[in-house]
Structure formats: structure tokens, C-alpha cells
Request: fold
Amino acid sequence: MACRRWEPETWPNRAGFRTTRQPDAPDLTDYRRRHRSADPRVFGRAPAVGWRAYSGGVEIDDFPRLELGFFPTPLHRLDRLSAALGAELWIKRDDLTGLGGGGNKVRKLEYLLADVLASGQTTVVTGGGYQSNFARQTAAACAKLGLRCVLGLRDGYLDNAEYTDGGNVFLDQLFGAEVRKYPGIGSKAAVRRAAAELAAEGVDAYVVPVGGSNAIGSLGYVRAARELLADGPFDAVVVAASSCGTAAGLAVGLAADGSRAELVGMCVDSDAAATGALIGRLAAQLHDLGLPSEPLHCRAPDHARGPGYGVPTPEMRRAVHLLAETEGIVLDPVYSGKAFAGLLTELRQGRLGGRVVFVHTGGLPSLFPYRSEL
Reply:
């Protein structure tokens, strides 16, 4: 499924992203106004109102950003696996971003938490599943910045003590986050519940969407695309796609820098139609921030998704074992394991070729609760 472009007459709402269609979209007018901060931790400044007057768009370095991770992350060839498969496979190690055990969400948090500091709010609320990697990385980043972190977490596929209290949940608490559990509801509902409880307590919290996937968070992967292209060119870039901020940022960043590389967002949550549409909507939000609007070379296949989010598949198990046994690299069962399984399928079926890079999004702590499933 190709990633759909937005339609100007229906999307986005140019008055400012508070619409019933996309309630999680940030208020970009507030974002523009806030970023005149002199906080020495923040790099860049958001351009003034009227960004669209820039004929070539704005530069990624213009946007306010914290330094939370260790970048650039390593990029290296998968020598043994490439030889075995007769392919040219590379891996971008965003599992090694450093903060809080690493992972792709650190790139998003550099922009999101810069906005928190500019807002003057001192409490951050977000969430996801019990084993949310984003929740863990947010907790670590808040600890580093001295912010209060409240996590609204919901249950998932597994029901064992390691899943509900170990892995990422243990690390959330180690980083000092307040964990509030809401079984039986979805991730977005869990975040809303936690935010409502804080509001009832008189706390003005900054709400970060699930996965950090809005225009502000997606800036992290616009920047990552430029980092990746410094070691390019590549024919295809493959990454897991769930909340889609990573995939959308990469797609926009690759296109803005003139790359012809195809972005393949492997669905691990929703189906191809919904995932492709979400990537397109996030790309539209990035355009509204002033980034160039170029055609996206992007698709979102869902053959590796399996029965649903977080539900193991035989292909995922084989992929996790294959990369561990040939390259000594650990994938996780929810995101990178399924995405890499999808990459292997695409190679076998001839839909991927040339120089292919896999973006490893991390997730090691969530591997342990799935031990019995692997």
C-alpha cells in the first residue's frame, strides 16, 4: 500500500491542527510562539509565523532541539547475512542512541521535550502498552531534565508477571516515572485517562501522544534521514511502522534531500491502508511546519503484521533468531523483529533489491517478557 498524500481541501486544517479528525495533532501556532527560549539546553529556533513564504521550506536545524542521544548512530553492513542471502544489507543502529537503554524514540524526544521546556510545564504525561519502549525512553529523558513523568499504560497480548511488571515497566520505575495502569482500554485512552486524573489533581501536564508521533516528534527522523544519506546512497530504507512518526519523518527527510530511496514502512500494528494514510497525514503536518513538500517514495506492506499488534508470528521468530545467530544483533518481538521478517520476505519475492538499509529501532527490554514465545 502506497503512502497517501494529503488532500489540501480536507487536510490539513490550516487554521491550526485542532480538528476532530486529528485530535492528537499539535497546535502549531502555539509551537511557533513558544520557541523564543534562551534555554541553553535548546538548539535552533522555530522560524517566525509565515514559514510558508520560504520558497524552499525551512531547514531541519531551524527547529528547537535538545541533545539527549549519541548521534550519529552506527551504520554497518550485515556481512554474513548479506553473503548468505546474496543481498546488500546494511543496518542503522538506532537501538544504540544511548539514553535509557537506547531506541528510536530518543530522536523524537529531543524535539518534543524542547517544546516542553519552552511551554514552562514541568509534568509530562504519555503512555502506551505495558512494555512501551517510548514510555521507557520518555521516563529516562524526563529524569535527565528534572521533569515529572506520568505514564498511562494498558495491558496487551501477554499476561504474566514479567510482562506486567518486568522489562520496560521495571525501567520506567527505575527512572522515577509514576506508572498508572489501565487494563482493558487502548493506549490513547490510557494517556487521556492519566491526563484527566492529573487535571483533576490541579496539574497542568504536557501531553505527549503515543509513540511521540506528531509533527514535532517526527522532526527527529527528518534529521535522521540526512544523517543516513551522509553514508548513502541507498535503494531502500526499511523500518517498522506503528504510530508512524519514524516512517513519516524518514519519508519526508529522504524526499526533501532529493533521495530516490524508497521508504518501506513495515506494518506491525494497523493494516496497510491505515498505516499508509497515517504516514501521509504526518507528512502533511511536517509540510505545515514549513518543510518542503516533495513526492513521497513510500509504501507500507502489511504481510509481516500477523494477527495483530504484539502477537508473535513464526516469521518474526525466525528473523529474531537469524539475525542473532549470524550477526550477534538482537531484535525485539513487537517492532524490529516483525519488520525484519518483512524485509526478508520482500527480498525473497524480489520486491527489494540493491543497497538496502534496515533501521533498527531498539526494544531490547521487551524481549524478556516474550521469552516463552521465542
Remarks:
- The chain has twelve helices and ten strands.
